[in-house]
């Protein structure tokens, strides 16, 4: 069995996927690199096959019909033979020194007889045109260099969340919790780092800048105009997360720190949905915003009250055009500070 399976979801990625693959090859035979060709129409599939031929003990090319990012992550998980599972998007890459440290740490934990559910590390926003790169670190919120549980988690700052770029999950945990991401839907990475959490008992934080998250490619899903154009998919993901939280409420509410973190994550996702609907400026989308909040209220009144009347929820629901303008200005300040979009 391999130590780590890394899935690279690829759709028409010929221009940049090789940088991603090359950054992962130094893992050697400890790592299985699954290049998931999601029905590409360019040379992506051919490049994947070439790497499999050159590195048969490390690389596997998996070809499938187009189903979107979530479908490619699902396919990678279905093919994974590694003890742990990581997703690296085809336009991103990893830092070699941090990569080696992560593999060494995973081996050490296993050798010590511990069961690890989730490893967390830092990621770097590689934003096009910016010399100074923001690093998402977790040393204020998480214990370092030890296996820990939810009871030892401290306070996460606003805008500080465990994203897909941050995590490596135990493969079997993802299978046991029944994780299946929706197909033909963007923003499912939020589900990937949300649904497994009630099943996570043992974590480890390694303070290394491992994942390099590229922002700036034209048409990228986190581009604001693109997000507004795909707002129905953002709402769909938001509702799936609400449904899951309500369904697993008994399991979540038994762990205070887990509950606090998941509520905070839900809050930021709902705020993003709300602000994008406001930013679009259309009456249709303002109606969708109202319907989203009604959906939450009907699902769970307590959850609605928490999300709606917290600081962020209140700021997204200020009345009239003037209120919406204030909401947008607040969002712009957050965007400059946290470097997203």
Listing every helix as H and every strand as E from the N terminus to the C terminus, the arrangement reads EHEHEHEEHEEEEHHEHHHHHHHH
Percentage of residues assigned to helices: 40-55%
Shape: globular
Number of helices: 14
Structural class: alpha/beta
Kindly state the number of beta strands: 10
Radius of gyration: 20 Å
Q: In this structure, how is the largest beta sheet organized?
A: 10 strands, mixed
Oligomer: single chain
Integer count of domains: 2
CATH architecture of the largest domain: Alpha-Beta Complex
Mean pLDDT: 90
The CATH homologous superfamily of the largest domain is named Spore Coat Polysaccharide Biosynthesis Protein SpsA, Chain A
CATH topology of the largest domain: Spore Coat Polysaccharide Biosynthesis Protein SpsA, Chain A
Low-confidence stretches: 337-341
- % residues in beta strands: 15-25%
Amino- and carboxy-terminal Cα gap = 38 Å
Question: In CATH's first tier, which class of the largest domain applies?
Answer: Alpha Beta
Describe what this molecule looks like in 3D.
The chain is α/β, with parallel strands linked by helices. The protein folds into 2 domains: 4-215, Spore Coat Polysaccharide Biosynthesis Protein SpsA, Chain A; 224-338. It is 46% helix and 17% strand. It has helices at 17-24, 44-54, 69-79, 96-111, 171-176, 189-192, 224-229, 231-247, 249-253, 256-280, 283-299, 301-308, 311-315, 320-338; strands spanning 4-10, 31-38, 59-64, 84-87, 93-94, 118-127, 135-136, 147-148, 167-170, 203-215. Strands 1, 2, 3, 4, 5, 6, 7, 8, 9 and 10 form a 10-stranded mixed beta sheet that branches. α2 links the parallel β2 and β3 (59-64). α10 (256-280) packs antiparallel against α11 (283-299). The chain is globular, with a radius of gyration of 20 Å.
């Amino acid at each position: 069995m391999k130590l780590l399976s890394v899935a690279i979801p690829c759709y028409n990625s010929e221009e940049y996927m090789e940088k991603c693959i090359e950054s992962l090859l130094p893992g050697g035979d400890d790592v299985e690199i699954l290049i998931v060709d999601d029905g590409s129409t360019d040379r992506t599939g051919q490049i994947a096959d070439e790497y499999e031929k050159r590195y048969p003990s490390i690389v596997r090319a998996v070809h499938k019909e187009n189903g979107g990012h979530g479908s490619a992550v699902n396919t990678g998980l279905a093919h994974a033979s590694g003890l742990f599972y990581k997703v690296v998007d085809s336009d991103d890459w990893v830092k070699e020194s941090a990569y080696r440290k992560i593999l060494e740490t995973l081996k050490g934990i296993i050798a010590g007889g511990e069961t690890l559910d989730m490893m967390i590390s830092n990621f770097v926003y590689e934003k096009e045109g910016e010399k100074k790169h923001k690093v998402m670190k977790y040393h204020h919120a998480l214990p370092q260099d030890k296996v820990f549980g939810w009871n030892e988690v401290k306070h996460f700052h606003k805008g500080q969340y465990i994203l897909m770029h941050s995590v490596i999950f135990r493969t079997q945990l993802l299978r046991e919790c029944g994780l299946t991401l929706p197909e033909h839907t963007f923003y499912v990475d939020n589900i990937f780092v949300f649904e497994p959490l009630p099943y996570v008992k043992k974590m480890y934080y390694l303070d290394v800048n491992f994942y390099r998250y590229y922002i700036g490619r034209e048409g990228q899903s986190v581009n604001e105009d693109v997000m507004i154009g795909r707002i129905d998919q953002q709402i769909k993901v938001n509702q799936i997360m609400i449904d899951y939280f309500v369904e697993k409420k008994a399991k979540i509410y038994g762990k205070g720190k887990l509950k606090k973190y998941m509520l905070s994550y839900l809050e930021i996702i709902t705020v993003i949905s709300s602000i994008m609907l406001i930013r679009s400026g259309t009456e249709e989308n303002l109606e969708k915003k109202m319907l989203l909040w009604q959906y939450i209220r009907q699902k769970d009144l307590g959850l609605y009250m928490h999300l709606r009347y917290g600081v962020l929820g209140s700021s997204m629901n200020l009345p009239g055009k003037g209120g919406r303008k204030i909401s947008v200005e607040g969002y712009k300040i957050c965007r400059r500070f946290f470097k997203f979009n």
